[in-house]
Amino acid sequence: MSNLLKEKLGYDKTFDCVQCGYCLPACPTYETMEKETHSPRGRINLVKMVAEGKASVEDMREPIEKCLGCMACTTVCPTNVQYGAILEGAKQVLDEEKPRRLVEDFFFQTFFPSSKWMDALGNATWAYQKSGLQKISQRFGLTKKAPLPIHEFEAALPPMPAPKKRRGRADRYIRKRPSVAKVGFFQGCVMDSVFFETNQNTVELLLRSGAEVVFPEGQTCCGALHAHTGKVDASIELAKQNIEAFEQEGFDYIVNNAGGCGARLIEYHHLFEEGTEWHNRAVRFVECVKDISEVLVQLDGLVFEKTMDRTVTYQPSCHLQNVQKVTSEPLALLQKIPGLELRELDRPDFCCGSAGVYNIVNYEDAMDILDVKMQDVCGVDPDSVVTSNPGCLLQMKLGIEREGVSGKIDSVHLVDLLLEADPQPK
Question: What highest taxon heads this organism's lineage (predicted)?
């Protein structure tokens, strides 16, 4: 095998895995699929075999594509295997081996990176909901005819704001002078399109905390979806664009409210060779990247006044917890709400099965994983499941529907619940 292929696959990194098996109990796909090849150590061994010419690239396609990328294995690995780098390398090789598809190229090269296309998606969804077409479609099962399980997810979408409200958003907000911090807000692509109101609620929480909030012009998709599908070069270009956009002003924080986006942003420096100009610029960028929960805790500028007679459980985003290492801050914020009862899941670290677009392209496997999660959720009997990532939020809404408890349990983003508790400046 060529040295170039070995380099792309991260062959040298595979030797850090000693095949001890500590990763097995932590891996959702190993638990639900019961195959060694669908465990972290099994996938690493496959990558090593491909690099050594003992297996073909196609031999590793199904196991690699069935990996959630939740990174739970990295939290228990005693030898600190760089599983994420190995996984991305394998996906890059797989992507290069398959024929180009015009529709796929459009989505990754044009659709997701474009704020205009994202706004158009949000506005079209608003029209679909407002006109009554959604009710008609659901009544007659029209979306069930789609090639992907779109009907499952469109029913879980939140109400979209009117186009006028999207157009009315400012690029800069300040309420307290002088502000306690200057925040560059990373709005995301899907997050801003589908969860526009949650983004606006995030801005409101920051303003009440005393911060100035800026939407830097030129920001784009974080590149997570591109990296997860092996499009590494495209992901690097998006990283450069975001770094340049946020360099225009000096920010104390670069804030996001989506666990998957934050996990990509915080690893930008790994995309560039150490010592290069882009690596140094990426390091400065990464030093400012924070999840909204971290910033709200650090600013400590809110008092929650509304008593909420409600029981909740917290479903942590895998990428927020396992990559960004943010664990205590969301819980600390929830515990500040008067009257709120927090019930911890038995297995909070177990993935919900969303994983970017995993639950769309690997629907049945994602539902097997979701069923395990929902058994845990129903076991603690909450009124609400609190999440910190848009994919998790939709996945939990879908799980609630599948369990037939939609009238009893709902799913809510952490930011939306915090604002509902009417926090006031200290």
Answer: Bacteria
Residues of the chain with CATH 3.40.50: 302-425
| C-alpha to C-alpha distance for 170 and 186, rounded to whole angstroms | 14
> Residue 169 to residues 119, 160, 166, 173, 311: CA-CA distances in angstroms?
12, 15, 6, 10, 34
Report pLDDT digits (tens) over 292-336. 999 999 999 999 989 999 999 999 999 999 999 999 999 999 999
pLDDT tens column, 115-152 = 888 888 889 989 988 898 888 888 877 777 776 677 77
Q: Enter the tokens of residue 258.
A: 């989506």
Distance CA(185)–CA(252), nearest Å, equals: 11
Residue pair 126/198 in contact (Cβ under 8 Å)? The answer is no
Residues of the chain with CATH 1.10.1060.10: 3-97
Give, in words, the CATH class of 302-425.
alpha beta
pTM: 0.93
- Identify the H or E element spanning 104: helix 102-106
**CATH code of the domain made up of 3-97:** 1.10.1060.10
Tokens of 424: 């006031």
Burial of 312-322, coded b for 16+ CB within 10 Å and e otherwise, reads bbbbbbbbbbb
